Amino acid sequence: MWEGLGLQVVLIWLGIGLCSHALTALEHAQGNVHNHAHRWQLSLHRHRERGKVGQVLHRSKRGWVWNQFFVIEEYTGPEPVLVGRLHSDVDSGDGNIKYILSGEGAGTIFVIDDKTGNIHATKTLDREEQAQYTLIAQAVARDTGRPLEPPSQFVVKVQDINDNPPEFLHGPYHGRVPEMSNVGTSVMQVTATDADDPTYGNSAMLVYSILQGQPYFSVEPQTGIIRTALPNMDREARQEYDVVIQAKDMGGHMGGLSGTTEVKIILTDVNDNPPKFLQSVYVMSVSEDKAPGEEVGKLKARDPDIGENGLITYRLTEGDGMGIFEIVTDLERQEGIVRLKKSLDFEAKRAYTLRVEAFNEYVDPRFITLGPFKDSATIKVMVEDVDEPPAFTSPMYSFEVEENAPPGIVVGRVHAKDTDIANNPTRYMIRRYTDLEEFFSIDPEDGIIRTTRPLDRESLPWHNISVSAVEIGGHHQDAKVRVNIRVKDINDNAPELTSQNEVLMCERKNCLNKALVQCNAFNGTASIYVTRKGFSRITQDVYLLPIVISDNGSPPLSSTNTLLVRVCGCDSRDAVLSCNVEPYILPAGLSTGALIAILACIVILLAIVVLFVALRRQKKEPLIVFKEEDVRENIITYDDEGGGEEDTEAFDIATLKNPDRASGILPRKDIKPDMQQPLQQRLQPGATSADVDRFIASRVLEADNDPAAPPYDSIQVYGYEGRGSVAGSLSSLETVTTDSDLNYHYLQSWGPRFKKLADLYGTKDSVNDSS
């Protein structure tokens, strides 16, 4: 590009030298043309003046007209470039006319010689910055400044040179084209721009060419459209291409300027490749104990295409394991996964052969001629032997046994066999968590199941047990099977009522020959009918009806059930009101007020009892006097003591007499005798008698002969009997602390009542005598 620019500068300098001579000739030619135009205009004006009749002809003033001047851009000569010259017809060359220039760039870019009218450009001009300048020319008298010519506007155009190379404003570019495209397939279009004037010369005439990317692509010189240049370009062989496109002005000729851009072209994928297996035979192994659904192995075909063009689907087409195996496609990994569809048995079959096919789901019809888009391979599956548990001949067993059968009856037999080549023997056992009460037993050798006790269908009609078969030897593999045992019914239960055993019946209702109730038994139902008119619950409120129920079994059984029929009071709609008989015994005319009075009396009696108990407790007296707690001692205390028997004035013996004894009967104060017997006439001491001994003796005799008296006496205590008494003191308190000469042997003659007292004091006398 710089070589072309340098050459262009040289040419410009040569052109300037040639133009400097041509300008002088041009100025003269322009003056001649200008003068010729003015003269043509003047002659035309005069002709028009002569054509007017009756008018005075005057010579009109000659005018001046300026259209445009040209100046070459980018001029870098030592002298200012002459743009043009202004000249008026009135200028006689004596210097009396002054030319004035105004407008765009006047005085800075463009200067004028006010005497000659020559206009020069003092600066380098660039058409791409400003293509033209508008100026105004004037001719005035130098001395007075009077306008000699009217102002004339003209344009100075900057003449273009090829100083701007083409540019790709949108580069670099990226294009895409499908692989295997035909020659001439359009990829994309690139466009360059040139800042030079397209209307002047060939400076902006561009031509496109390809500098890099051949022989794969080409570009149209005039449009810049990039096209494929080779057929069958394969993406799998090469996917990206870097292309360089050039745009050159001057029509592509020598000396023109150029610009380049890069274009990255990518081949997009099409389905032009079928899938291929890397191996023709795939060998897999699987253990015979694998469960259906488990993976056996994987295989993968290769497809160099990408996206949906490279999607592979796998399927099994033939082989002896079509029903045993299946293959599924892993879309993410593009693999075929072989899985087990049914259980395997090494002893039955040890190897399988399958044919697998890999194919594309999406096929481009443009490339169908490239062949079938699929591939096939062989899969060999080897079955591995494992130690398997015994296998029962049936997945489940069902047996029947009659209820109440004797222990040891055979229920059925289960059988299991070791399927391995070793064919080890097996032993049987019942899993006890399925037969907790141990109703059954099994022979460990032959698998025969027997009962251990009679079974009852009514309590448990089904027994579901689990039997295990354990391999003897090897790894002691075991298997289990379910055994369902149904207990068959026999006629061992008599029928009985299943419904309620009590029914309610309304009294005083005519129920003759009407069904009272339906009784349900296990074998059917029966209706009970009433055979008389009306019932009264006062007369009889409950009826016990025995019912005999028999079945038709073998042997037939029967039972007697009692139906309780209760007579109840009902309303007019036969709704039961009451089934109790007590309300009919109570007086019918008892009013509410009477009931309240009765309750009030009960409350009052309870209050009295509570008050009585409270008073007794306050006095600390027992509520009930028991016989063993009865106290018969009546103690009479006298504060006034006499002087003994000799003192007849201070003490009167009559005070010792009970006034109640006047009638001869002394009432008891503590108990009421069961029987009364007439007593003998007792000794009644007179009022003046001092025979106290006889009085006491009579009282003792009375007590001894009284059948209603308790076994103790009522003793009267006298604190002091007086001095000189022959009997002395009767108090025992004094004898404790003082020596006494009394002889207590006489107490023995007082009878059994005083035996305890006689023993106490008699013993004391005996001790004193012995001492």
Automatic annotation (TrEMBL):
Bilayer topology: Single-pass type I membrane protein
Signal peptide: 1-25
One Pfam assignment: Cadherin
Compartments (UniProt record): Cell junction, Adherens junction; Cell membrane
Organism: Scleropages formosus
PANTHER family with a match to the protein in the record: CADHERIN-11, CADHERIN-23
Main location: other
Matches recorded under CDD domains: Cadherin_repeat
BP GO terms, sorted: adherens junction organization; calcium-dependent cell-cell adhesion via plasma membrane cell adhesion molecules; cell migration; cell morphogenesis; cell-cell adhesion mediated by cadherin; cell-cell junction assembly; homophilic cell adhesion via plasma membrane adhesion molecules; morphogenesis of an epithelium
The protein's name in its UniProt record: Cadherin 11
Function recorded in the entry: Cadherins are calcium-dependent cell adhesion proteins.
UniProt domain Cadherin: residue ranges: 88-168, 169-277, 278-392, 393-497, 525-585
Family matches, as SMART domains: CA
